[in-house]
Design a protein that fits this description.
CATH superfamily of the largest domain: HUPs
Shape: globular
CATH architecture of the largest domain: 3-Layer(aba) Sandwich
CATH topology of the largest domain: Rossmann fold
Order of helices and strands: EHEHHEHHHHEHEHHHHH
Bound molecules: tryptophanyl-5'AMP
């Protein structure tokens, strides 16, 4: 099944975010900004992937807090529960069930090549769970359960998306046409926001770099300071060249992600780094401040209620697709 018409007549999009750490500018420019924009002309399904968060050890209760925090952030960013389905992965049991089936159509070799697994397992001084290794099979299940046409993500998810497509194609060829094979959608600017202090690394929730990471909840003064101190280079020329000038190009990318312009075009407006940093900080603040204001007005109980309603809507799609997969394999009804 390379595509399918959705009951709404609009293409379906699905995407997920982990309820760990604080949401940062990379999550926003790489994913959430697109999630918000795509709601109008797509049938949008957005998932807080709490089961994925368990691939690294957690304290009891930590995931509940993270789930509510991320739900409030998504609502503040503009995800509208009337127009989209917003829910928590563990509330829809079919994710775990299909996750197992997806492991059966994903090879050890494919999972071993995942750069995110290599990075995270090398960085972890603690316990490396087998779930961290098989994580992309659960991600494939998340996507395939909703007959998803398009998956809006940042660039770091490209490899996982390829694996989801391969798993769908393999399942379909083994058991007959069952799953829609999804496409990814990666934004032109902001798909890979880098750390402001270490522009060779992506901005990340799991790497401890407070000065290099712009949190969506950071104070405006702190954000200005972080941009002022952002690492650039010594040649003094403002040019968009991610290889040779990673720090400057990252600033241009962030500015472009906030304004909708082209990074290489924006570079022509600057001859010095100072004004580029100041304008980038101002553009980021103009995006972040209204989100912070909206977030302050949402409480935990409202967010929880929205998530429960979202799970009911999600099940309406996920249950029949799961049934289709069971029937295709021929598990005893
Ligand atoms: P997660 O929670 O790490 O990130 C959520 C989204 O933010 C994007 N992102 C970035 N974009 C640009 N620059 C950055 N520095 C940056 N850091 C993160 C990610 O690309 C992502 O779109 N495996 C996924 C969650 C997931 C999922 C799914 C996504 C589970 N199932 C099904 C799509 C479809 C993850 O850990 O995202």
């Amino acid at each position: 099944m390379s595509s399918t018409a959705q009951p709404s007549g609009r293409p379906r999009i699905f995407s997920g975010i982990q309820p760990t750490g604080s949401t940062h500018l990379g999550n926003y420019l790489g994913a959430l900004k697109n999630w918000e924009a795509l709601q109008d002309d797509h049938d949008a399904v957005y998932c807080i992937v709490d089961l994925h968060a368990l691939t690294l050890p957690k304290e009891p209760g930590e995931v509940t807090r993270g789930t509510l925090d991320i739900a409030k952030m998504l609502l503040a960013v503009g995800i509208d529960p009337e127009r989209s389905t917003l829910f928590v992965q563990s509330h829809v049991r079919e994710h775990a069930e299909l996750g197992w089936l997806m492991q059966t159509v994903t090879s050890f070799g494919e999972l071993s090549r995942m750069t995110q697994f290599k990075d995270k397992s090398e960085r972890s001084s603690k316990f490396v769970s087998s779930a961290l290794f098989s994580y992309p099979a659960l991600q494939a299940a998340d996507i395939l359960l909703y007959d998803t046409n398009v998956v809006p993500v940042g660039d770091d998810q490209r490899q996982h998306l390829e694996l989801s497509r391969d798993a769908a194609i393999r399942f379909n060829s083994r058991y007959g046409d069952t799953f829609v094979v999804p496409e990814h959608r990666i934004p032109a600017a902001g798909a890979r926001v880098m750390d402001l202090q270490h522009p060779e690394n992506k901005m990340s929730k799991s790497i401890d770099s407070p000065q290099g990471t712009i949190g969506m909840l950071d104070e405006p003064k702190a954000i200005e300071k972080k941009f002022k101190r952002a690492v650039t280079d010594n040649d003094g020329e403002v040019r968009y060249d991610r290889e040779a000038k990673p720090g400057v190009s990252n600033l241009l990318d962030i500015l472009a992600g906030c304004t909708g312009e082209e990074p290489a075009e924006l570079a022509k407006n600057y001859s010095q780094y100072g004004p580029l940093k100041a304008d980038t900080a101002a553009a980021v603040l103009s995006v972040i401040e209204p989100i912070q204001q909206r977030l302050a007005e949402i409480d935990d109980a409202d967010a929880a209620e929205i998530l429960h309603r979202g799970a009911d809507k999600a099940r309406e799609v996920a249950v029949p697709v799961m049934e289709r997969a069971r029937n295709a394999i021929g598990l005893l009804p």
